[in-house]
Amino acid sequence: VNPLTPGNPAHALFDLFVAAQTCKEVQLKFAELCRHLEVDSQDYRNFYNKLKERLNYWKAKDLWQKIDSRANHSDYEQGKPCAKTKCLVLGAGPCGLRVAIELALLGAQVVLLEKRTSFSRNNVLHLWPYTIRDLRNLGAKKFYGKFCCGSLDHISIRQLQLILLKLALLLGVEVHTGVSFKGLVEPQASGAAGWKALLHPESHPAAAYQFDVFISAGGGRFVPDGFKRKELRGKLAIGITANFVNRHTAAEAQVPEISGVARIYNQKFFQELHTEKGIDLENIVYYKDDTHYFVMTAKKNSLLKKGVIKQDFSDADQLLAPANVNQEALLQYARDAAQFSTGGKLPDMEFALNHAGQQDVAMFDFTCMHRAENASLVRERRGKKLLIGLVGDCLVEPFWPLGTGIARGFLAAFDTAWMVRNWGKGMPHLQVLSERESVYQLLSQTTPENTSKNYNAYSIDPSTRYPNVNVSSIKPKQVGAETWEEKKKVYLSIYSLTRLSDLLSWCQKHTAWCNRVQVKDLSQSWKSGLALCALIHHFRPKLIDMSRLKEKDAKFNNQLAFDILQREFGIEPIMSASDMATSKEIDQLSMVLYLTQVHNAFTETPV
Ligand code: FAD
């Protein structure tokens, strides 16, 4: 029992839950609180109200007031729109947690999976004014008293995750940590069984959960099958982050923060830094939080000259490969830049430690950023539809020095919640997708200036945030229709004969190298699977060894090609490999559709 709140153990447990500073502690204190109050955290429909009823404590009431004022917004219709919706959210990063909270407010059952067991990122996120208002309105200050005091506009990733985790739990989100998502499991039979997830550990109870909405917020590297990513390649940009221990002394408190000194605004500063220290930067940011956090973009030549990068390569991956980086020189470079930019006023700059117990300095490549081409799609198997959405870094990777990650991440979380609301309300799924994609078009251009300034009016409805949003700029027929029947209908309406003959010529051109293959049409010529394998081999020789394939092994060849195209490009097979190998007549339209996706995966100009 907390000695600060003697008397009522429930109040003490609530205080400990609110004050918990690690992911594990939050979960433990939450479980203890639930046990003590005899509320079942899995009873997601009634959980929050029961908790409220049983915890008659003024501190808790302050928080309930905040949460209720959000929950009573008309968009949520008291949890009716998604009362029958079951969501699986992947990732307890800030965006996964934020979307989970919105889905719970819409009345959905929400299960969230996170592979890690701790929140360990010291790095600090810039917050746009609307995110500060959003988090304040949700009671962030009750969990973290220092939240955006005065003019502060940032928070460490770790603290943000802790705040959002606590809110998610209070709203009945079922959070499982230490569980990795490995893929989707299709419904096995018609009837009751729905979509499930393949997990590690396999026997985890959440593996039995069936859902009709899957939201991936798995960060920059996790994009589920079926989504294509665009690569946005800019000029070489090398980011460095560094965290120093904050002892919270008066001297440290006085050192002013630097919120984005870009080269163009302060040439003198950067010239002096270059002349005095040999450090050449494009920009630098310094925020004070749990740590003293610096993020900067460094020029390659100065990193080479200072011996941070050992050898010059034109390829950014090779350039920044761990073997090509001198860690000691990197520590020195980051310390010198931090010291110079704070006028040497930060006393004994000791590096904070990262999750691996090492000095927290890292170098990242921002030359090539990714964004998903679509924000949503629907898959259907055995009559069961699954709505899939992306949020956060796996939708659009942010450039950290500009601090767009959380701002755009939360916008996408709200837009995704709106999409799920439409889904829950029974809107036809092509319309759900086309509305989501119409709104997604706006995301990459959003700034604090061109989004609405009426932050208090922000809700999951896109029109409260994006002035002049047109939710039908993308038409239902343009979006990821998923069943072949639906796709065929869409294609029938947009495919022209010229395009068909272009597609055929393209296939012929790129399979001509293989004398065992003769592509004459867009149907029967593909039966043995050899043509498809030859096409893949032409673009990616390492993926298929043609010399081992035989024309008579049609099922094997087709399966091989289907598997590769699904794994590498997320292209779903059109039919089973054996159907393809044995069918008397391969459906031309299905084949056209399939080959179109193959074409688009291998070329820059989609047909
Ligand atoms: P994330 O915060 O990356 O969360 C994704 C979560 O999904 C992770 O917790 C991950 O463990 C989990 N996950 C992934 N795959 C699986 C799986 N298969 N199964 C279960 N769980 C899974 N932004 C800045 O603006 N400044 C910075 O200095 C900065 N530093 C960063 C440092 C690191 C090491 C990383 C990874 C990101 C950093 N970012 C930074 C980006 C910032 O953290 C994100 O923009 C922000 O957290 C929003 O991301 P998110 O919620 O979409 O994803």
TrEMBL record:
Swiss-Prot/TrEMBL catalytic activity: NADPH + O2 + H(+) = H2O2 + NADP(+); L-methionyl-[F-actin] + NADPH + O2 + H(+) = L-methionyl-(R)-S-oxide-[F-actin] + NADP(+) + H2O
Keyword Flavoprotein assigned: yes
Domain named Calponin-homology (CH): residues: 497-603
GO cellular component: cytoskeleton; endosome membrane; midbody
EC category name: oxidoreductase
Family: Belongs to the Mical family.
The protein, known as: Molecule interacting with CasL protein 1
Organism: Astyanax mexicanus
Residues shown, of full length: 8 to 614 of 1191
